[in-house]
Amino acid sequence: THFGFETVPEAEKAKRVYKVFENVAEKYDIMNDAMSLGIHRLWKDMLLHVMHPQPGARLLDVAGGTGDISFRFLDYVYHQQERQKRRALGSSQTLSWQDISEKYPAEDAPHESNSVVCDINKEMLKVGKQRADSMGITSGLSWVVGDAEELPFDDDQFDIYTIAFGIRNVTHIDQALQEAFRVLKPGGRFMCLEFSKVTNPVLARLYDAYSFQVIPVLGEVIAGDWKSYQYLVESIRNFPDQEEFKGMIEDAGFCSVQYFNFTGGVVALHSGFKL
Ligand code: SAM
């Protein structure tokens, strides 16, 4: 009720969300660091730590925006692969990286991992692609415009589905969850990072003050865009809490649904399996 965004009719929401991310795309990465004091990096690292993907895994990163999750995924899998090669070669200490890559050239990798970044907003993807180019990432990554509620992929395609700070922007969450279920392979894992409910009352008051008083000001100062960041805060408040969201994931058919709170519940990681 602070800003009245929740009175926006359903049909309007998608349009507003599109405008918000179109406006902030260029400044998105800088704003993330500024607003979270860099902590979003740790939350994303934690997601990868829990995911622990193995070489060969295929990831679909929905609402993937500028690619943060996919970059981490490819990096993690790469290092995992190098560790496994070293182990396979036995004497891990005496071999140089060069020896390893000569004996096991990348093309020989039995299953190349890859990641698909899917986002409804082409401006966000554009910034992501530029980042990939500047990092020299040439393979294992693709960028697809698509709606979480109606994914442009066949059934049973992916080992892991991620959606990080994206699902609260989706108009019909249940629809997005059903789509996640559909495109995952049997045995595949759904993982969602999202702002959630802070449990500690003292932290909750601090967090409220920060969200409503600092965030829109930062939005105005850095991106010249107060309204988009008002929307951000409001959308966080309107999102279901940990237990309610867990129930929604179960309703979509996922098993062994669990969640982990990060930073006292500022963010929660939900996970579930398609069996
Ligand atoms: N996952 C990235 C990250 O963690 O940095 C980006 C998160 S950003 C806060 C939210 C993203 O969700 C935006 O890029 C936006 O375009 C996208 N989005 C919003 N609604 C969507 C939908 N219905 N389908 C797919 N993506 C959507």
TrEMBL record:
GO molecular function, one term: 2-methoxy-6-polyprenyl-1,4-benzoquinol methyltransferase activity
UniProt keyword terms in alphabetical order: Membrane, Methyltransferase, Mitochondrion, Mitochondrion inner membrane, S-adenosyl-L-methionine, Transferase, Ubiquinone biosynthesis
Protein family according to the UniProt entry: Belongs to the class I-like SAM-binding methyltransferase superfamily. MenG/UbiE family.
Keyword Cell division in annotation: no
Keyword hit for Iron: no
Subcellular localization: Mitochondrion inner membrane
EC number: 2.1.1.201
Pathways per UniProt: Cofactor biosynthesis; ubiquinone biosynthesis
Catalytically driven reaction(s): a 2-methoxy-6-(all-trans-polyprenyl)benzene-1,4-diol + S-adenosyl-L-methionine = a 5-methoxy-2-methyl-3-(all-trans-polyprenyl)benzene-1,4-diol + S-adenosyl-L-homocysteine + H(+)
Organism classification: Eukaryota, Metazoa, Chordata, Craniata, Vertebrata
GO biological process terms, semicolon-separated: methylation
Name of this chain's protein: 2-methoxy-6-polyprenyl-1,4-benzoquinol methylase, mitochondrial
Gene Ontology CC entries for this record: extrinsic component of mitochondrial inner membrane
Stated role: Methyltransferase required for the conversion of 2-decaprenyl-6-methoxy-1,4-benzoquinol (DDMQH2) to 2-decaprenyl-3-methyl-6-methoxy-1,4-benzoquinol (DMQH2).
Membrane topology (UniProt): Peripheral membrane protein
Superkingdom to which the source organism belongs: Eukaryota
Taxonomic source organism: Cyprinodon variegatus
Record text on subunit structure and interactions: Component of a multi-subunit COQ enzyme complex, composed of at least COQ3, COQ4, COQ5, COQ6, COQ7 and COQ9. Interacts with PYURF; the interaction is direct, stabilizes COQ5 protein and associates PYURF with COQ enzyme complex.
Residues reported to bind S-adenosyl-L-methionine: T66, D119, D147, A148
Parent sequence residues shown: 52 to 326 of 326
